[in-house]
Amino acid sequence: MDAAYLVAQNIAALGELIIAQHVADTTGEHVLVLSRKHDRDTIQLHATYFTRDQTRWRQEWIIRDGVDCPGLDADASFFPAAGSFTDLNHDGRMEVTVSYRTFCGGGVDPYTVKVILRDGSTKLAIRGESLVRIPGQPPFGGTHQYDKALLSPAYAAYKQHLDQIWKVVSADNRK
After folding, report:
1. Residue-wise over 49-69: b if at least 16 C-beta within 10 A, else e?
2. What's the domain range around 155?
3. What pLDDT does 174 receive?
């Protein structure tokens, strides 16, 4: 989906459109919009999920994050290729997984990495830092924490799914 389609449908991208994806499930049609807004030292990320109600789109949920780093190196970006729509609990409603990284600092430090799964109003995440690998040096960083609920047996399939994505997006191989 492109920006022109979103405008025609009155779907707001809060900043530069990174990607918009359409999905349908037993509850109807949905659009996930990933956008990024950069203003001087501030970078904002927005992952917004819209649902079609009869003739219009309404926002179902939003994930907001970013950095404000006056005088420091800053970055905030999504991993669009690692995003996914799944139905791991087989209820006919799509779960949405969004992952991204943020950075505010100087020198060679790990990024903050987040992998978030939304299942309706339920939000589960792995949060931590990238594992930095620099040739000729031992790796550093790579620690992460699970949301407490994600450790319950009821969410085992979600945890396994998020672990697979974490392994991909948390690798930080620098030259």
Report:
1. bbebeeeebeebeebebbbeb
2. 3-173
3. 63
Q: What total number of domains does the chain contain?
A: 1
Which of the residues in the chain have pLDDT under 50? none
Mean residue pLDDT of the chain comes to: 93
> Tell me, what's the pLDDT at 12?
86
Three-state SS string over 49-116 comes to EEEEECCEEEEEEEEEEEEECCCCEEEEEECHHHCEEECCCCCCCCEEEEEEEEEEECCCCCCEEEEE
For position 62, what pLDDT does the model report?
A: 96
Q: What order do you get walking across the sheet with 16-25 strand by strand?
A: 16-25, 28-39, 42-53, 56-68
